Amino acid sequence: MSIIINKTNRTEMKTPTSPTPREVIIGRMKKHKGLIISFAVLLGLVLVALAAPLLAPHDPFKQNLLLRLEPPVFLGGSWNNIFGTDHLGRDYLSRLIYGTQISLLIGFVAALISAVIGTIMGVSAGYFGGKTDLVVTFLVNVRLSLPVVLVALAVVALFGGSLFVVISVLGLLLWDRFAVVTRAATMQIRNMEYVAAAEILGTKIPRILWKDILPNIANQLIVIITLEMAHAIMLEAALSFLGLGVQPPTPSWGLMISEGKPMLFFEPWLITIPGVALFILVFAINMFGDGVRDVSAPEGRN
Amino acid sequence: MFVYILKRFSSAILVALTVSIISFSLLYLSSDPAAAIAGENASGADIEAVRKFYGFDRPIAVQYFEWLTKAIQGDFGESYYFKLPVSDLIFDRLSITMKLGLSGMIFALSFAIPLGVIASIQPNSLIDRFALFLSVMGQAVPSFWLGLILIVVFSINLGWVPASGTDSFQSYILPTIVLGYYAMPAIMRLTRAGMLDVLSSDYIRTARAKGLSKRSILFKHALRNAIIPVVSLAAVQMGFMLGGAIVTESVFALHGAGYLAWESISRNDLPTIQALILIFSLFFIVFTFLADILNVWLDPRMRLN
Fold first, then answer.
1. B216 CA to chain A: closest CA distance, Å?
2. Picking from A99-108, B22-31, B279-288, which range would have the lowest pLDDT averaged per residue?
3. How many domains does chain B have?
4. Domain of residue B163, CATH code
5. What domains are there in chain A, each with its CATH number?
């Protein structure tokens, strides 16, 4: 009996009138303006980061003390340095372009490390419950009560401000939201019949987690990855701004703002330009995450 | 209720103890505190003497328990840099950070709650869209950058408020805005969502059917219920805000505890850093504890469970 019902369901799925879930989602993506715009912006920024050596008009590290603090074109500067030059005469546009690499790299890798740590903790807490859940909940509480900026600053001060240290510190600090969200999601899915069926069939637990749990929390995971990527990028900028993040002469946007701070009175564009770049990147990432959440939300599903 | 508070309290204590271990051991991970105190030009014998003097040669566990028992009594040792008791140093600075945190929270609440309520009365209206836009924008603006922009506009161009310092209450205005805006989007969204939820409930329909005035429905019936989760969120945000004060204070050169933390980290002043990490964590633990208790107290349904 059940087999017959299954068969009719399957044939129904294939008729053009009822699209598959994947088609539904793709259809919704095409209609979601925010998602398309933010995706285009992000794609553009990734391309800029990848093609930085081709796009940058000058060497981002080359100093020219005769051409210090040249204003950008829109403030009466020359087209040779479109966004002007900094206090060491380095081309601001070139540093901005190379800064895209730093921000994207830190954001992406830190979010990925956090995702792995947090998801392992959250999924095992949600699936096994009991003592595992208690331990994970406790660890999340401990992590939340530690002030992120303060701990990150202290660790970077101890180990030195290399890109590797900054990425590792942020990756090891930002897993709390992954753990909280995947724990709740796994708890829900754990009670589904298909998980029970897999357990009765004697499927090994790692396989259940990988094949049944993980695909079903993937959408939520993508949303959190975007949020934490934005979070990591903002934190790196803040750490570099405080002088305890990525070290000079690396062209980090946060560091550029920090270096422009003494000239705040006379050359405010020095902090405006990297700040706007930071804003556009973080805004696009957040918008993309919101879009993914809207598109994959189960409420409107046909 | 009593059992719940007891359970919640013991978990808070356990978290606090773990945090104290982390903040104590964090600084012994890579650097040698004796070498840090002795300075760059010290000889091996000097470093050994310093190690003996401060007791760094004893087992870590012994040092931790000594540090903890003293810390509970409010003694965090002596600052390497200022040569003053850390507790005196922090106590002065902490009052500035508390003032800033409190005014930041009042600022955030007095904007976010009205905005959230108005947005919920007319969902998808112009005001609602404006509120949403503001909260999305707010999340993408780095606070240190906002602080610098505000300095450029209001201190340099308009000359309304001082750019830094703690001399008058005017110098708190910009830091308050920068710190408060950080907490605004979350509070506004929660107010809006809570109000939308409550406004569509049966008892509001009943109140409308009875012919109660719009104002009475909105404030007496709806907001009172929608505000419960907002109160606990505000308490949690307060904990986060104090932790975030380090960035705001350094932008405005406001010499609070956050600024002290930044200075101490740059100077490798271990006892001060340890104490500050512990204290900022304790603030968060206390605020979340109060938030949970407040939640149970305000919502009679939760008292039964």
1. 33
2. B22-31
3. 1
4. 1.10.3720.10
5. 31-296 (1.10.3720.10)
- Give me the residue from B30, B281, B288 closest to A147, CB to CB: B281
Q: What percent of chain A has pLDDT over 90?
A: 30
CB contact A173 to B (< 8 Å): no
**Which of A96, A80, A82 minimizes the C-alpha distance to A251?**
A96
A85: which strand partners?
Answer: A91
> Which of A65-74, B34-43, B172-181 has maximum average pLDDT?
B172-181
Helices of type H across chain B: 2-26, 33-38, 44-54, 60-72, 86-121, 126-140, 143-150, 173-199, 202-209, 214-215, 224-251, 257-267, 270-298, 300-304
Cβ contact, residue pair A286, B136, below 8 Å: yes
Please state the pTM of the whole predicted model: 0.86
8 Å CB contact of B144 and A138: no
Residue B6 lies in a domain: no
User: In this predicted structure, what is the pLDDT of residue A174?
Assistant: 92
In a domain, B147, yes or no: yes
- In tens, the pLDDT along B15-60 reads 999 999 988 887 676 566 677 667 667 777 777 787 777 777 777 7
Contact B22 A146 (CB under 8 A): yes
**Interface contact A148, partner B, CB < 8 A:** yes
**Do A281 and A233 meet the contact criterion of CB atoms below 8 Å apart?**
yes
pLDDT digits 0-9 by tens, B94-151: 888 988 889 999 999 998 898 888 888 887 788 888 888 888 888 888 888 888 888 8
- Residues in chain A with CB shorter than 8 Å from the CB of B243 are 147-150
In terms of Cβ atoms closer than 10 Å to its own Cβ (0-12, 13-18, 19+), residue A206 is exposed
- Residue range(s) defining the domain that contains residue B182: 95-267
Q: Which residues of chain B lie closer than 8 angstroms to A141, CB-CB? A: 11, 15
A66 DSSP 8-state letter: G
What is the ipTM for the molecules in this complex? 0.84
**pLDDT greater than 80 at residue A8:** no
Please report whether residue B2 resides in a domain: no
Handedness of CA B158, B164, B168, B171 (dihedral sign): positive
Q: What is the pLDDT of residue A106?
A: 92
User: CA B121 to CA A259: how far, in whole Å?
Assistant: 46
